[in-house]
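Posting for a labmate who doesn't have an account.
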Amino acid sequence: MNAKQERQKDVWVKWDWLWKAIFYAAVIVSTWLMLLDDDRKAPIWAVLLLTGILLLWHWGGLKLASRKSVVSDNRAIFQFIVIIGVIVLWFALVNMSPAYYFTLFGLFGQVFRHLTLRYGVIAVFILTGSIIYEQLADASATFSLTNPTIWVFLFTALGAITLGVWITAIIGQSTRRRQLIEQLEATQAELAAAERRAGILEERQRLARDIHDTLAQGFTSIVMHLEAADQALPDDLGTLQKHLDRARETARTSLEQARRVVNALRPHSLDQRSLPDAIERTAVRWQEETGIPLTTTITGDPVPLHPDIEVTLLRATQEALANIRKHAQATAVQITLSYIDDVVVLDVQDNGVAFAGAAASSLSGGYGLQAMRERAEQCGGSVTLESEPGEGTTVVVSIPIYS
């Protein structure tokens, strides 16, 4: 039995050895008193043999009852049979020597320790009836309600039953409490497992977003520069070299970002820099790579943001610019980062071709916009798209500053 099972054992189970010890001690003391009794009605060997049978029946019967893999009702009946057998053997012994009345000191405790209330009451009445019968037989008296001896033992039985009812109620209440605790522990374990599964899923989604926002965009840029370099062959070696240099630089940057994704660190652009500086740096590089004019504007007073918010806004900027490069056919782009009271708002606007409905599939196969929305929602924010034919598209990311 492990430590947890030992802690979960009820107190009456933990102290079962004491009840048994009291019963066996009472039998041993009765046997010792019997040896000193010259008025015993049977030979010593017969009394000792019957005493051994009683002890063996009690020990073996209860041991078998505790091991029976049957329903609780059948086990209760089996235990009732064992206790009744002990009472019958005790009755035979007390007829051989009155010294075995001392065994009652431990026998009453065994009744309500091993039997349910219903069977315990029956066993107490049988035991009390046996005592009254033996007392009347020894006194050669007849049964009469005026006999004080009868009432003494009847009140004794009533007291035993009252005690048994009280003990049974305590055991029942404690058992229900233990079951509730076990159910609570099981529920807590299930919740913890669910939280672990949710955490694993969230971490997978985070890694997927980071990979998309870093490696996928980097590879896209590298492919575009290599294609441009291929078109510059063999006549324009200057343009060829420029695109190769930018592809090489992008590959190195993507490698650094991949390492930081693995280490779950903040984006390289945010290391030792504020969010406006990181967005400005991203915009300058994007403009150099695409040749499309890009203006960056910061409104309001910049305030320190939670790292998750800064990462979300920077990734949203990178994703929006990547989509403009691939889909918008724009000739001008405007980035506005606004600190408005308790909200920070990022607007990325282009003057390219618009698309009706702002379908997710129109942005990086759908995953880029979905990742952007998931990031914003985790920070308590939202992402909206404003797209009108002839007016381009605007991506708006709004996040509470103190989320």
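Reply:
Got it, the structure tokens are right above this. The CA atoms of residues 319 and 368 lie 7 Å apart.
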